[in-house]
Amino acid sequence: MPQRYSLVSLLRHGLNRHTTWAPAWRSPQLKDRYDVIVIGAGGHGLATAYYLAKEHGVTNIAVLERGWLGGGNIARNTITIRSNYMRDASIPFYVKSVALYEAMTRELDFNTMHSKRGMIDVIQTWGMMRDRRRRQHIMDIHGATYEQLSVAELRHRVPALTGGGPEARLPVLGAFVHTDAAVNRHDAVAWAYARAIDAMGGAIHQQTPVTQLLRGRDGRIEGVETPRGTVRAPKVVIAVSGHTTSLTETLGLKLPLRSMNLTAFVSEPVRPLIDVIINCPDAGVYLSQTDKGELVIGGPPDPGQSYRRDIKQGVFEETVASMLSLFPAFKRLKLLRQWGGHLDIAPDASPIQDETEVPGLFVTAGWWGGYKAIPAGGLTLAHLVATGRPHPLMEPFSLRRFRHLDYQMETGTTTAR
Ligand SMILES: Cc1cc2nc3c(=O)[nH]c(=O)nc-3n(C[C@H](O)[C@H](O)[C@H](O)COP(=O)(O)OP(=O)(O)OC[C@H]3O[C@@H](n4cnc5c(N)ncnc54)[C@H](O)[C@@H]3O)c2cc1C
């Protein structure tokens, strides 16, 4: 059991000037054999290892991370957690994920600062209005919240939204509010999972890049090569977001994924202006305000294949122009930081979670907006790895769908394409 975090333990360790806290996770020796290797200590890798140990008693696990724990996209995303998706297959999966996030602070005894503040989609074209009404009806069936707002209700709820009037190129036509949407603290999610994995006997190895997948004579996965030596396991999970094909291609295995750059930037802190997540799918911008007062702003991905980690000037300018068309007063904001991350995106913008054609080699990939999916992604992939049977929530997201063109067409937050 990890040490409990509570007021009592805070006071007790405070008496000792906080020198007596045990490390939240260890740095154990790397063994040459495990039952399961998980590649990537981002959200999906950590969640998979956590549920393998918690739900299935598989604790002889190594999570191999090329950098530091939680330093990938889990640290680079804009932490929007929501379940307002379009397809029957997607909505129950994301509803489950949102529920698991809501319970995470208690379950893992780690404050993830979950803030259920809701998200408003601002609608500026009739095509988008039809899309969102359809989404509302499907979401109703699955018990997810999505309510229509009039323009007057929207402007009352978000006074800073003064653009998009009747004379604008894209006037605001209405809005939809998704009350289940939330933000939380991404570092806390990674650290909470790491602490729990360590407490159950799993091992997290940072600074351990996997350079090659190894296949046995029988065709099954055998293990991985790292600069620290060969590590063997009968089951290997690839959870490396954006870099999936770099690894699968070491075995000549091709997957229907493209790697793209998605970016965000933040403003200087300002007084509280916006207490919901605002998403403008027609304009192509979304934003929320942090507890510190900074506005966190994101746009659509750069449409080309890319591994850059900063923002392309054209994407930046378009995102800022979109924001100013709806929030003209924000032209006085100073921007402080910008960054980007690497996502791999499947042709239907839905995830891939499956065992590959190499027996024992599993993949979790295609996570365009995959932060919100971390708990349910880990739960369902762990089920497949441990039992050999797909979890019902993930069945539609297997690789089989590409053979039969049984696509689950979805979209990211800021684009309907
Ligand atoms: C700017 C931006 C904004 C976003 N906003 C949102 C949002 O608001 N909501 C949302 O739901 N999603 C959002 N996302 C998407 C989300 O961040 C990702 O889909 C999700 O984090 C991917 O899963 P992960 O956490 O496991 O990835 P990561 O944290 O990237 O984990 C993968 C890990 O694998 C490691 N790795 C890579 N190659 C190797 C190797 N060869 N050997 C060992 N380790 C390796 C990496 O170092 C990394 O730590 C956003 C992404 C970006 C970039």
Give descriptors for this structure.
417 residues; alpha/beta; FAD/NAD(P)-binding domain; D-Amino Acid Oxidase, Chain A, domain 2; eight-stranded mixed beta sheet; 11 helices; 17 strands; binds flavin-adenine dinucleotide
Would you write up a description of this structure?
- With 417 residues, the protein is α/β, with parallel strands linked by helices.
- It folds into two domains: 7-83 and 85-110 and 185-255 and 348-403, FAD/NAD(P)-binding domain (3-Layer(bba) Sandwich); 119-179 and 258-345, 2-Layer Sandwich (D-Amino Acid Oxidase, Chain A, domain 2).
- The protein has eleven helices and 17 strands.
- The chain has an eight-stranded mixed sheet. It has a six-stranded mixed sheet with strand order 6-2-1-10-17-16. The protein has a three-stranded antiparallel sheet with strand order 7-8-9, with no helix packed on it.
- Helix 2 (43-56) links the parallel strand 1 (36-39) and strand 2 (61-64).
- Helix 2 packs parallel to helix 7 (186-199) and helix 4 crosses helix 10 (374-387).
- The longest helix has 19 residues, at 90-108.
- The site of flavin-adenine dinucleotide has 38 residues, from helix 2, helix 3, strand 11 and strand 15.
